Amino acid sequence: MTKIAWPVVLLIALAACHQPTPAEKAASAFAVTPLQPADGADLTGCITRIARAGTTDGSRIFIEDSLQGGAKGYIRINGHPAKVTMSTGGSDSIHSVRSFVDASGKLSVVESYNISEAKTGQNIRPLTGQLIVTWKGGTQTIPIGGARACIDAP
Fold first, then answer.
1. Closest CA to 111 of 55, 59, 57, 66
2. CB burial string 104-119: b at 16+ within 10 A, e below
3. Partner residues linked to 53 by β-bridges
């Protein structure tokens, strides 16, 4: 029989006994829900539309206007729309890492993705990466796919 040190057994036992506090449960219990067609209707120029990785139904969970400064975006938490504004970060032709916050400061969205080349004759560039959403202290990391497209600008 293999001997296991008693501190390891104690650590395993204590970890198994931990019950999340009500605050921990509430913080992690939010849902990032699909955007509605009108969400982001005020955005113009180059638009980035983000979906959960592998989504084939056309639903999106985040949309933003791809500006380098003052970018705006939309996300839905538990079915409720939230407008966010870029606070830090930037992008180049192949990478983007940018942070967005809502007016209350309770919601933050960090997008981190790689941008692929557009197909010949198109202005839509595929992207893959992750979205890190923090709401009221809880955080979710969501693998994403999507596209950046210039709809009003060349």
1. 66
2. eeebbbbbbbebeeee
3. none
- State the amino acid at position 63 in one-letter form: I
In this structure, the chain runs to a length of: 154
95 vs 137: CA distance, rounded Å: 27
Instruction: Select from 37, 94, 95 the least CA-distant residue to 49.
Output: 37
Helix (H, G, I), strand (E, B) or coil at 75: strand
Give CA–CA dist 54/79, Å, rounded: 21
Span 24-58, pLDDT tens digits: 555 568 999 999 999 999 998 889 999 999 998 98
Query: Rounded to an integer, what distance in angstroms lies between the CA atom of residue 30 and that of residue 139?
Result: 9
- Non-local CB neighbours of 13 within 8 Å, separated by 6+ positions: none
Q: Select the more confidently predicted residue: 2 or 126.
A: 126
Contact 76, 60 (CB under 8 A): no
